[in-house]
Write a structure and sequence with these properties.
The chain is an alpha+beta fold. It has one domain (16-86). The protein has 3 helices and 2 strands; from the N terminus they run H-H-H-E-E. The protein has a two-stranded antiparallel ribbon with strand order 1-2. A hairpin with a 6-residue loop joins strand 1 and strand 2 (79-83). The radius of gyration is 20 Å and the shape is elongated.
Length: 95
């Protein structure tokens, strides 16, 4: 058992519709782990998924935002941050 990481059990409540939707999934634990890990990859690095910035985070963001712009990509329409120091050129897809 040397080298094996200790696992922690985390439980959550699921309403009837979620429980019904998950019936038939062969390994629900693995499915849930994969879904959570995938979701965490897309979490906002500033608010860490809360949707809110603390006053200190907002001050740091404001400083960054003074030299950057929030823009929509003309190709995929995703919002992203563009540095104004780069001359405002659009990021090229595929690179």
């Amino acid at each position: 058992m040397a080298g094996r990481k200790k696992q922690e059990i985390i439980t959550f409540k699921a309403d009837a519709s979620l429980a019904d939707a998950m019936r038939g999934i062969p390994n629900r634990s693995e499915f849930i782990r994969s879904a959570i890990l995938a979701s965490l990859q897309g979490i906002c690095p500033l608010c860490r998924g809360t949707g809110m910035l603390s006053l200190d985070q907002y001050r740091h963001w404001s400083s960054l935002a003074s030299n950057h712009a929030l823009v929509e990509c003309s190709q995929c329409h995703a919002m992203h941050i563009r540095c104004n120091a780069e001359g405002g050129r659009e990021e090229v897809h595929g690179r």
